[in-house]
Amino acid sequence: RVALPESAAAALRLAPGGEPLTLTDRATDRALTVEITGLYRPADTSAPYWLLDELGGRGQRTVDFTTYGPLLTGPKALAAPLVAPGPTGWLATADYAALDTSTTDALARAATAGAARLAEDPALGPGASAETGLPQVLERSERALTVSRTTLLVVALQLVLLAGYALLLVARLLSTERAGETGLLLARGASRRRVAALAAVEAL
Length: 204
What we know:
By secondary structure, this protein is mostly helical. The protein folds into three domains: 1-91, no CATH class; 92-132, no CATH class; 146-203. The chain has helices at residues 6-12, 75-79, 104-120, 134-187, 192-203, and strands at residues 2-5, 21-24, 31-34, 36-40, 60-62, 66-68.
């Protein structure tokens, strides 16, 4: 009993409870008949889970020949002698909630070294391979962060320049207005010390 991708079932005109599906091993020509009991459709083919699927969750792929699948079944069926042995894969994901910019370089180095150690681990047997795309993701994130920081710095500098220009303009307007008032006060007999004191009080 197996579950088949909806797209593959549509292409093969198969449905649950219908005609059984005969699978033939291309290497041994041994045939295996399976019963289709369900269909499935990936909710998001870009999810990391589908990296383990050679078809990327699409259900079918045509190159020199058309491949359909994968078929989903229980562990007991996979352990049966009728099923040819094949590679086994694991997909590991991490919790990046505690990650900050100070640890990205160390994490990239650890990911690369960890993948190399896994590939050489004798517990996985000969021919094992391990891949990680984390260093590339971290590098792109670091570049994007650098661009964002540069943009924010440029905007901040522009705001400082605009604020400085505005202050100079206001100071120039106040100075022009104050010049007339100061001249009027001096003409009416006010001393320069008194005029300076009034200007200081207004500045406060």
